[in-house]
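Quick check before the chapter quiz. The format below is the same one you will see on the exam, so make sure you can read both the input and the output lines.
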Amino acid sequence: MHLHDIDYDKFDIACEDTLISPQHWDDEPFEVIVSNPPYSIKWAGDDNPILINDPRFASAGVLAPKSKADLAFIMHSLSWLAPNGTASIVCFPGIMYRGGAEKKIRKYLIDNNYVDCVIQLPGNLFFGTSIATCIMVLEKNKKDSGVLFIDASSEFVKVTNNNKLTDENIDRIVDAFTKRDDVEYFAKLTSYDEIREEDYNLSVSTYVEQEDTREKIDIVKLNAEIREIVAREQVLRDEIDKIIADIEGEQA
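Here is the expected output.
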């Protein structure tokens, strides 16, 4: 916080286990939550019989897997979010499509219209990991029932060994997020029914079509060129045969 010029009286940091012993009870609910929880760490899960009755997790009817606490952090943020608030959480991509308890939690989030947007980020963006992470945006008081998917995986510039979001990259993402319009190969506003048909898969690639950057080949033109090459090869072969025949005749 000091490195970002935020005075000591403007923040309150507490060191604890967020999922088992959360702090700042006197400050919640929050109108804005920005979170980058650890990816797929282990936690007590259903080994702790108290957690299923914890109001932060109970509403989903299931706990995040013991080996992958990602959605437990998401449920914690949702629980502490004010009715008019927005939470943005950096996520490991696997939570968007894995089955089991994680799918049940995704179903709860979608059925109750809490997921506002999912943004796919480029890989190699964060220090210490090269994976392509994503952001899940939660709201308790959405204006519509759709979920916006943004594929920002190509929005970066390379800086030494890492990728970086420029101001232009960020502005494009924010503009798409604000307008909630379909943008070819970049953004897609998806209905609840579409997500349900996809079995509550929230992977951006499921909904945003990938641009085909492969070179388009004119088969008719290519076939004509091959026919011409074969014809030229035959002419050369005939000339070579004639030369060989002449040499053999002279030697005889």
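If your answer matched, good. The CA atoms of residues 64 and 178 lie 31 Å apart.
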